[in-house]
Amino acid sequence: MKKFHLYFFAILGMMLSVASCTKDDETVTTKTIDFESVLLGAQGFWNGADGSGKFTTDGATFLNSYTASTFGDYWGGFACSNKGDITTPGYTNQYSSAAGTGAANSSQFGLSYGGSTITFPKAVTLQYAAFVNSTYALIEMKMGGFGKKFGGATGNDEDWFKLTIKGYATEGGTPTTLDIYLADYRFADNTNDYIINQWTSFDLSSLGSVVKVEFSYSSSDNTGEWSNTPSYVCIDNIVYSE
User: Do residues 206 and 178 touch, judged by C-beta distance below 8 A?
Assistant: First the structure.
């Protein structure tokens, strides 16, 4: 009986040791992308004019395209900004957050325009991120301009503006898709209609393990195949684990 007890406790000790090693080997690290370390320059934004095609911060790379022309410079993908003009309408105010600051009153935030891509050097699990409309897009939807005033003259038009996020577990694999409505006027009760004008946290965990994330936009207000709603969103405090 004594030998049995010794044998039992020896096996138990080995099991605890293995469990402890396994736990250590599977330690999860959580990181937050807050954009505060991105160098903006005197103008208060980075839009890819340096020709680098990307910026990297907090373990993620944000892709960018930039074209200079005689008709004006053009950028797409991701930019970074500290602009918070919440009143000026139009394209000249394209870098501002409708909340006036970054998330949690921080200084800087990411800004996506059109098709946008984030990559990671190894697989991560996105947990959540904060989003708000750009001032440019919000005023267009609220007041009209190049596009229509959401809700129309009566407020009953069922307008919407949507961000679609695709997460890829492997490069070129089949993505998992998540839709986030940045504005939604489809409710029977018009008092429930909204345009996001404050930083709002969204759960991204349904995307699963990802090495690449793509943003795209769609709207109820279109001319042919082109959206009349400015295809921008501000993003901040992206939390992920690896």
Answer: yes
Q: pLDDT digit string (tens) for 31-48?
A: 999 999 999 989 999 999
Nearest Cα to 112, choosing from 218, 239, 214, 229? 214
Name the DSSP letter for residue 42: T
CA 181 to chain centre: 13
Give me the residues paired with residue 32 across strands. 239
Query: CB burial class (10 A; 0-12, 13-18, 19+) of residue 174?
Result: exposed
Terminal Cα-to-Cα distance of the chain (whole angstroms): 47
| CA distances for 40 relative to 81, 106, 111, angstroms | 7, 15, 13
Distance CA 159, CA 186 (A): 6
The counts of H helices and E strands in the chain are 2, 15
In the DSSP assignment, the letter for residue 70 is: T
Interacting residues of 239 by C-beta distance below 8 A, sequence separation 6+: 30, 31, 32, 33, 126, 127, 128, 129
Are 185 and 150 within 8 A, CB to CB?
yes
Query: What DSSP assignment string belongs to 114-139?
Result: SSEEEEEEEEEEEEEEEEE-BHHHHH
pTM: 0.87
Per-residue confidence band for 132, with pLDDT thresholds at 50, 70 and 90: very high
| pLDDT tens digit sequence for 166-201 | 999 999 899 999 999 999 999 999 999 999 999 999
Q: For 81-237, where are the alpha helices, taking DSSP H only?
A: 135-143
